[in-house]
Structures are given as structure tokens and as C-alpha cells.
Design brief:
The structure is a single chain. The chain is an all-alpha fold. The chain contains 12 helices and no strands. The protein is globular and about 75 Å long. The two termini are 33 Å apart.
């Protein structure tokens, strides 16, 4: 077996990629280190990549806070329910658009493509949510984004690439449209389902601007809004946490760092379980034939 010769370009390329990777990982490691620093050795504005003394006091403090638990529950509900509904509406509509028997299919698909290029904008979206009575409701973050044009186009393109013979054989055997969708299309679409579930879950988990605009009750804040108020606005007192932390509590900087880590850990834990399908899923609809 002939080994590939390593060139100067390979060495430079790998070195640059390693430097970029470390630079991307460095902020996360620093925030994690700060969140684990014991208050006895913590010195404000002093940099330590590895804490001199470890402590989980900041995480214990955060997890015992009603405001953080409320934000976590809100984000979990929006992420789980929203992602499931996104998959249902995206894949069912994409399947419908693949059926040539659908009346005015081309017009409907044209509207989808049109919405990909032109959007209504922020103000019409706000008035739509307000007129529907969804203000200060979790559904204001879920219902307006049940699907989107990009996801529909990609999933439809993927379904168009599935073997037509298998689908026609199922219909000849008496399988209904729902049966074809449930027994043929969905099993063949596992990579796409995994990839788009991850896309939708990350989008819902990181919901910030819409939550800030539509959720007026601080008890319904999402994690991203709460973390932003802790890190940037220093408005912890408005959300149930005191900005000036007492002598028995961890330093405020370690608390903020712990909140950031807790806000990103769930997505990091989900990714390894979907990684097997993710590589195939990101290529969904890119190749036909």
C-alpha cells in the first residue's frame, strides 16, 4: 500500500487548521474554567486557564435559582415541541409537493420559493402574533415558524430523489398516501430527519430575539434571554437572581459563566447521538439521480 507523501502545503494547512480549532475552543475552555473556580482563589480580571481550586458552587447556585429553572423549562418546552412540529409540517408538506396529483402544485411551490427570497418583515410578524392573541405565550415562538422555505425545498428535493419504483409498488399493493409516507418515505428519510431535527432544535434552543419581543413575563424567559440579562445587562435582580451576590454565594462572574455553560451543554450532548446521520443529512437534496 502506497502512503501519501506529506507536502509543505499539507503541513501549513494542518497547522493553520489546528490553530483555528484551538482559537475556537479557547473561549469555551476559559468560560468553563471560570465557572469551576472556587471563590477562595477567584480574583476578578485575573486570567487562569486551569483553576487553582475547583468548585461546583456556581452550578449549585444557578440550579437552585427559580429564574434559571423557569428559563430551562421554557426552553425545553419550546425546543422539544417546536422541533417535533417543525418535522411534522416540513416533511408532510414536502411530501405533498412531490405528488404531481396535488392541485396547483406548481403555484404552491412558487409561493414557497417566493417566500425564500422575500419575507414579510418584523413589523407584520409582530402584528400577526398580536392579533392572534399569542403575545406572552410560548406558541408565539413556535407557530409562526412551523416550517420555512429553505427546509421545504431541501426536503422536497431529497424526496424527489427517492426510488420511484418502491413508492409505485406500494401504491399498486393498495397502500394509501399516508401509508406510503409512514412506511416508505419516513424510514428512507432517517438521515434527513436527524439532520433537520438538529437544525430545528438548535434554532429553538437559541431563540433570543423573538423571545425578547413576544415574552413580556420574565418568568417565561428563555435561557438565552436570561443569560443575556446576566452577562450583558446585569439585570439579574429582575429575573430572580441578585446582581450583587452576597458573601455566602459564588462570585457573580463565575455564576454568569456557569449559566453560559449550562445553556450550551444540552445541544453538545445531543449532537453525538445524531452524528451518525448528520453527515448524510447535510447532503440531503444535493445530489439527484
Amino acid at each position: 500500500m502506497q502512503h501519501k507523501k506529506i507536502t509543505v502545503f499539507d503541513i501549513v494547512n494542518y497547522t493553520l487548521l489546528a490553530i483555528i480549532s484551538v482559537s475556537c475552543l479557547f473561549p469555551f475552555v476559559y468560560v468553563l474554567s471560570l465557572s469551576l473556580t472556587d471563590r477562595a482563589v477567584y480574583i476578578p480580571y485575573e486570567f487562569h486557564l486551569i483553576p487553582e481550586k475547583l468548585s461546583l458552587a456556581a452550578y449549585s447556585y444557578i440550579l437552585s435559582s427559580d429564574s434559571f429553572l423557569n428559563a430551562l423549562n421554557s426552553t425545553l418546552f419550546i425546543t422539544i415541541v417546536g422541533s417535533i412540529l417543525n418535522l411534522v409540517f416540513t416533511f408532510t408538506m414536502a411530501y405533498g409537493l412531490t405528488e404531481k396529483r396535488l392541485p396547483h402544485r406548481k403555484w404552491i411551490y412558487g409561493i414557497v420559493v417566493f417566500s425564500l427570497v422575500f419575507s414579510a418583515g418584523l413589523i407584520p410578524s409582530f402584528f400577526l402574533v398580536k392579533e392572534l392573541g399569542l403575545m406572552n405565550s410560548y406558541w408565539a415562538l413556535i407557530l409562526p415558524s412551523l416550517t420555512n422555505a429553505w427546509s421545504l425545498i431541501v426536503v422536497k428535493s431529497f424526496m424527489d430523489s427517492l426510488p420511484v419504483e418502491v413508492i409505485e409498488s406500494a401504491k399498486i399493493d393498495g397502500c394509501t398516501d399516508l401509508g406510503v409516507f409512514g412506511r416508505i418515505i419516513l424510514p428512507l428519510s432517517k438521515p434527513a430527519l436527524a439532520a433537520f431535527f438538529l437544525f430545528f432544535a438548535v434554532a429553538h434552543w437559541n431563540t433570543y430575539f423573538n423571545a425578547l419581543m413576544f415574552l413580556t413575563d420574565s418568568k417565561k424567559w428563555t435561557l438565552q434571554v436570561l443569560v443575556k440579562s446576566l452577562v450583558l445587562d446585569n439585570r439579574a435582580s429582575t429575573s430572580g437572581m441578585e446582581a450583587s451576590i452576597g458573601d455566602s454565594a459564588p462570585p457573580s462572574e463565575t455564576v454568569r459563566s456557569a449559566a453560559i455553560i449550562l445553556a450550551i451543554l444540552p445541544i453538545l450532548f445531543i449532537y453525538p447521538f445524531l452524528q451518525k446521520h448528520f453527515a448524510k443529512g447535510v447532503m440531503v437534496g444535493s445530489v439527484k439521480g
